[in-house]
Every structure is written in C-alpha cells, then in structure tokens.
Amino acid sequence: MMDFEYEVFNKTCGICLDVDADGSERPVLILSACLAGVNCKYNGGNNYNEEIARLVALGNVVLVCPEQLGGCPTPRQAAEIQGGSGGDVLDGKCRVINKEGMDVTKEFIKGAQETLKIAKLTGAKKAILKSRSPSCGCGAAYDGTFSGNLVPGNGVTAELLIRNGIEVETL
Prior knowledge:
171 residues, two-stranded antiparallel ribbon, 32% helix, 18% strand, globular
C-alpha cells in the first residue's frame, strides 16, 4: 500500500495495519458486505456507503455477511431479536425470529461464529458493521416487533466480536 493510501486508511479507521514477521500486511478490518455494495441484505439489496467503498478500494479489509455465513439465503425474510439482545441470544435467553415466525437463531449464531473465525484468521482488530441489524447492530437493534422500534443492545455478531476483544462500530 502506498504511503498516501496508508495515511488515508489510518485516519479513516483510527488503526494501524498489522504486519506479519515476514513483513506482509494482514487485513485488520472486518466490514459488513452490504455497506460495500454487495447485494446481501434480507431484501436482496445493499446499504452502499461511499466511505466504506473507499476503504475497500484501499484493500486490507474483509467483507462479511454474517447472515449468509450462517446459511440464510438472499433474499430472505426480515428477522429481529425477540425478547432481548444479541448477548441474550448468545446466552440462550432469547431467539431470532423472522417475519414469518420461523426461528433463525441457529443461523444467526453460526454466522456470528464464522465471522469471528474470519476475524481471528485475518488478525482483524476492528469491525465496521451495519447499524440496527439483528446480526451487526451495535448499541441498538430493532425490538422484535417488526414495527421499526429500536431498543438498546447489540446484534448477535457484534456482541460476539466485542466479547472476543474486537472493536465494533456501526454505520
């Protein structure tokens, strides 16, 4: 990566790139794929963000869609955490239910676990994820009523990353 690109990357993300013993750079930033323009949202669309696209162009990022990694198809029914937060889902205290009433908790947990595995394999220390998502939201997520109401808490993937020392922010 050229010095100028590295400076832009570092200023935007507030982190430095890790370097292996052989001097090669490792990816250190996990990004929600939908923010980069990948059509992986529940409705088959994306949440393209120009700042994220610039980060992707610089490299040293890994795009993930936890819901796809967990086995959910695209498109799929919208899903929300009912009766708690992502932490509660991980602790077995509540479930992720889609709009048709199907329990998709297993898929959301698997997607979170696969995202964490990718983060560990690549040495990622930070993730920028999609806000309000039952997977990726950090600080707030939809309340499980499919009415657009938000409640405090994290999505399943965001919570698992945080529990494992990975800094998470959302857009």
